[in-house]
Input
Amino acid sequence: MTETKRTQANLDLFPIGNCALSALIDRQGRHVWACAPRVDGDPIFSALMDGDDPQHGFWSVELADVKHVSQAYVRNTPILRTVLTAEDGASVEILDFAPRHSKQGRTYRPLAFGKLIRPLEGAPRITIRLRPSADWGARRAKITSGSNHIRYLCSDVVMRLTTNCPVSHVLDERTFRLENEMAFFLGPDEGYDQPVLSGVTAAYEQTASYWKNWVRTLYLPLDYQEAVIRAAITLKLCAYEETGAIVAAMTTSVPEFPESGRNWDYRYCWIRDAYYTVRALNRLGAVDILENYLVYLRNLVDASGGGHVQPVYGVGLEEDIDERITETVEGYRGMKPVRVGNQAREHLQHDVYGQIVLPLVQSFYDHRLLRPGSVEDFCALEKVGERAYAMHDQPDAGLWEFRTIARVHTYSSVMCWAACDRLAKAADHLGLQSRGEVWRERASEIRARIEKEAFLPEEGRFGASFGGTELDASLLQMTDLGFLDPADPRQVQTFNAIERDLKKGSHLFRYVEPDDFGEPETAFNFCTFWFIEALHLNGRTAEAREIFAEMLNRRTAAGLLSEDIAIETGELWGNYPQTYSLVGIINCAVLLSRSWTEAR
Output
């Protein structure tokens, strides 16, 4: 059987995962992206990043004479069901998942993918092509095999396939008639200690049960529940549970727009992105992710010792994630460069101090937490506050991570203010009145500085930097952070200016001035969600709901979004799935939904 004709690479992809590893599956049912042994590791499936005709780096199940493919998640899970139907009506069902369930009193989340293939109708003939990659996609992984397994020697991990399918069918990519259910467990290089069909089936059932029960713990808005559930599940998949880290996206180097060179590696934990993620999930009551991330943050706080904090770290708390360019793959749709690591780790981005303090102060109030915050924790957090106070009026790269531009960014300063403001409130709550006074005075000092240096009295609005007139969408966050009331005339004028200058169609740009790579050409989805929130707060809820509905219609078949969107075509660009964008879905859904009192 000849290989199925490939379509151009795109972001219409379905994530699966278990909070230890993840994969992206395309509309043909192929695994086209997965990294191991961690999300920031070498890709074992690299086809997404290797042009439009990759010869390896994928796992496919191809049906002879296929006519139709349908895909959907098993309800309230990240388990993907793909049905392939042939011209003669023969069809097969494929269930793809990463096992996650309770086992021997612990959460079992192996470095493994499970797959079940079942005949549904007729006499389907299939071909299985399992071609993991090695050396960052440079070559196919070397293979050894046994009677019921195949070993794939990837760069940083050896993966073993255990199956009840004849091994030679897989090795020789032989087309065969599927007459019985077949199971595949692609996991660690160790023996599979049970019959593979019953074992993988049980793992599937237990994994489905785990996710459905997790979703049951969420507090959902009355409206938009399907969108919120899918966003929440995917945000959880972006968590690296072993350490508590949360990555910004599962991919690297999907360009922000075609041939832009804006190809970045997002497989790391940005303090900013993680702050927004746990904040959104906290609105849904997903305390498990918050609590685990607080462990990650406390470790960062201890390591920093009150000094400089990077904006981004490895999922294992690594500081050294230096950026390099790899030439071993062709890039998304052949668009280079493909970057590994991220130069942002070298940046000064002073907003991070606020984004450390704000999640951690919740531990002083929240009685749900297994480990409530202590006075000792507060004393450690004060060191971060000291840094925020010291840096609030110092130039940095800003949240948009300019590589050659340094300013005193208003957003960074407001985040430093928020750090001091929340420390003052936490001190009062803990009965540390003298410390509360100290932090109140500092917050007041920073506020006065911002109101003097960033406000433009002739226009009645704030600028994006001290002494600057430029705009950026992050000024909308001054309300969300409690710096300004939505009805404050200064905030209203700032909103009006942003709508006038940064809104293109229904979408919002981060900024429009040229940066290190020229003028931006795509809108930033998270900023559009900020704009939707601002519309609502400015009394324009009908408009907010209209634009929100449009954004929901832009989602992939999986119900997800990437970082950016092309104004003219609506095509998604940038890394995927993007946590920022999923946060926006949740926040806007909660804000715009009708009250449950209307239904019960």
